[in-house]
Structure formats: C-alpha cells, structure tokens
Specification:
Largest sheet: none
Number of strands: 0
Helix content: over 70%
Shape: globular
Structural class: mainly alpha
CATH topology: Na+/H+ antiporter like fold
CATH class: Mainly Alpha
Length: about 325
Amino acid sequence: MYEALQQLDPIRINFSASGMHIINIILGFIMFGVALGLKPKQFTELIKEPKPYLVGLFGHMFALPFMTFLLVLALSNYITPTIAMGMFLVAACPGGNISNFMTSYAKGNTELSIGLSASTTLLATLSTPFNFALYGGLYLRYISSKGGHLLQPLQIDNVQMFETVFILLGIPLILGVLFAKFLPTITTKLKKPIQLISIVFFVALVVMAFANNWQLFLKYIYFIFFIVLIHNLLAFLTGYFLGSAFKVSNRNRRTITIEMGIQNSGLGLVLLFNPKIFPPEMAVGGMLFITAWWGIWHIISGLTLSTYWSKKPVLSKEPVIE
C-alpha cells in the first residue's frame, strides 16, 4: 500500500492564471452562499447558552487536528508523508457550508450549525495556517527521526496562506452578510439554490483538479477511499463523544457531530492550487487526492448520517439547549 501511494506524489498541478481565477471565484461563490444564511440574532442566541457552541468550536479548532495527528501516527507505516499532510490540511480547514442543510435534515440545531460554520470560517484565517504548520511540523520531525522523508522539502509560506484564506473567505462573507441585510427578499429566494449550486461547483472543482490525471485517480481511489473513510469517521466520532462528554442535549450533539465531519475541503484544494503556497514543482499529489476525495465523501457520509437521524426522534427527556 505504501509503495502504491508513493506513485501519487509526483503528480503536479498546473493551472493558468485564468484557471486559478475560476477556482477562486468558485470558492468565493460558495462562501457567499454561506453568508446569506447568517443573521445577528443567531449569534445572540448562542451567547445566551454558550456551552454547545464552545464545545463545537473547541472540537473543530483543537480536538479534530489533534485527533488527526494521532491517527496519522497510528497509520504512519501505511501512508506516505504527503497523504499525512493532506489529512492535516483537511483537518485544519473550517466547517463546510452543507453541514447546515444536513443538520436541519437530521433534526439538529440549525442555528448552532450556522454559528459554528460561520465562526470556524472567520477564524480560519488564523487557525488553518496555524494547525497545518503545527501538526505538519511535528509530523515531519517525527518521520525524520524515523529516517523517513518527503520526496522534496515541504516549506509553506504561512503568511501567504493567511493572506489567501483571508481574501477567499473574508471578503465573500462580508459581501454575503451585506447582501442579506439590504436585500432580504432576494436572499430568501437565492439561499437554497445557491447551496445546491455550490455542491455542483465543488464537484466541478474536483474534476478540474483531476482532468489530466483521471486514470491515476481511478487506479488508486481504492487506497484513498479507506484512508478518508477512517479519517472522516474519526471526525464524526470526535464530535459525538465530545458532545456526550460535556452532556449537551441530543439535538446539539447531532449538530456538533455533523459539524466535525463536514470540512471545507474546497478551501484546501484552492490552497493546493495556489503556486505561491505550493509551487508547481512541489510533489503534493497525495495531498491533492486526499483533499479532493474528502470533499466528495463527506457529502455521502454526511447525508447518510443525517438521513439516519432524521428517522430517529430527538430524545425528549434531554433538555434542548439552543
């Protein structure tokens, strides 16, 4: 398995300036759609009963990256360094926008879901570069101590990553919030269609990434599938057990679980496509495969889990903390 995954590393991503603009616009559009669902009163409600919100925020910002680090160490004999770095990149990304729909479908706390998605997205300008640098650096030191190495050194410009995340997430969010405030009627009509279009756009983003490497993707998806399956399952379980440990309500536990398992891997792809962060000559094929497949798989797993919960009543004996 290790030898097979090594064949993914030499894959290089080459996009023209126009191609990069298209990818940035796609992510900006997705973030704009997230912002359309934000309302100030949703945050004031979270402040009144902050425990579920703080538990979810802690899980996303700290617990998931740490648990991913432990998982990578456990799998270190079976995965390549770039696969591991891809897992760190996904874990460092903020929550995905489709989690709000899945939470509603699963009879969870939609306001909490929106609040967590928005907060992790806003904080991603700091948390994404920080967590990727922290756990990526610890892992690289670990494999160096074991005599392992990357095909070539992986040196990330964290300042450039911060700048990219801020531009791609911050500006569309601000525009979306202003649009929703001043054009509420149009916003109500656009919100759901934009969410659906966002999913289509993400799939298009993945297709663009693999346009020149499709046969290779099909050849090695078997290995990538199980790695992402385990990682995504770990994310869901981390959210579920955190919610249980802090004794939040059943409804909020569902919300935190879904939020932890749905990552904005589209941001991860855009970062990988940025030549100022990951130069074209850098071997990051393993990172690309993990990040892209996660974006497809979490839709499948999230919808499966939310469908299961949609058929299960929320336990009435538990207090609903909103």
